[in-house]
Amino acid sequence: MDAVVISDTHFGIDSSTLTDPLKVDMLINEITGSNGCNEAILLGDILDFWRSPPEKAVRDSRYFLKRLSEVGLKIRYIVGNHDHHLVVMNQEGEFRERMARGDLYPIYVPSLRWSQIIDGMRIEMLYPTYQARCRQRTYLFTHGHHLNGIQATSLRLVDYLRQLSGEEISPADLERMLTYAYESIYRSSSMGDMVRFEESLWKASVIFRRLREGVLKTLRFTPVEIHYDAILKFLRDQNLGKVDCFVYGDTHRADIYQRKGGPLAVNSGSFTKDGAMNSSKDTYLVVKDESLSLRRLGIQKPVFMCELL
Question: How far apart are CA 163 and CA 189, in angstroms?
Answer without folding.
Answer: 34
